[in-house]
Amino acid sequence: MKIGIIVYEEDVERATQKATDILTELCDHCHDALLCMKADSKKGQEFIKDRMATQERSFKNNLTSLRKHLENYTNDELWNQRYADAAVDCIEMHHRAWQVGQYAGSSIYLYDDDGEGIQEPTHPKNVLEKWPCLNVSEYDDLTVYVVSAIAN
């Protein structure tokens, strides 16, 4: 699975290292960072847009499945798993609910400078603009990079 990490750093080498450190925190089976690019470059923008589109598809797919499960059974049927179908569907429903609520892992395709999973469309805008609402000056002299990596 291809993921991206948006980081603030002074240069490409430091950005790649920071992304690698975040990857190490996120998962045991992540490969090293593959490509580091400025987030405002054409390639960087395309990569971020692609990861967010993948995130949106995954989110909507999981929600669609979750809705189906919730519509087909009562709360008691899902809780008690009375029917063979309900037991199997209940496991699937729990999995889909877990994926919708993830902040890291198999349903997250883009991470921010703190290693937090980007789950919704306003988050990358704040990250790319260095959180202007927070008035954080420590990022002022740093460049915004996006680093691609492969996670298993």
Task: List the keywords.
single chain, 152 residues, alpha+beta, 4-stranded mixed sheet, 4 strands, 18% strand, elongated
How are the SSEs placed, and which strands pair?
Elements: E1 2-9, H1 12-26, E2 30-38, H2 42-72, H3 75-80, H4 84-100, E3 110-111, H5 122-128, E4 143-151
Parallel strand pairs: 1-3
Antiparallel strand pairs: 1-4, 2-4
Helix pairs in contact: 2-4
Structure description:
- This protein is α+β, with helices and mostly antiparallel strands and 152 residues long.
- It has one domain (2-151).
- Helix content is 50%, strand content 18%.
- The chain contains five helices and four strands; from the N terminus they run E-H-E-H-H-H-E-H-E.
- It has helices spanning 12-26, 42-72, 75-80, 84-100, 122-128; strands at 2-9, 30-38, 110-111, 143-151.
- Strands 2-4-1-3 form a four-stranded mixed β-sheet, sandwiched between helices.
- Helix 2 (42-72) runs antiparallel to helix 4.
- The longest helix is centred in the middle third of the chain and has 31 residues, at 42-72.
- It is elongated and about 60 Å long.
- The N and C termini lie close together (6 Å).
- The mean pLDDT is 85.
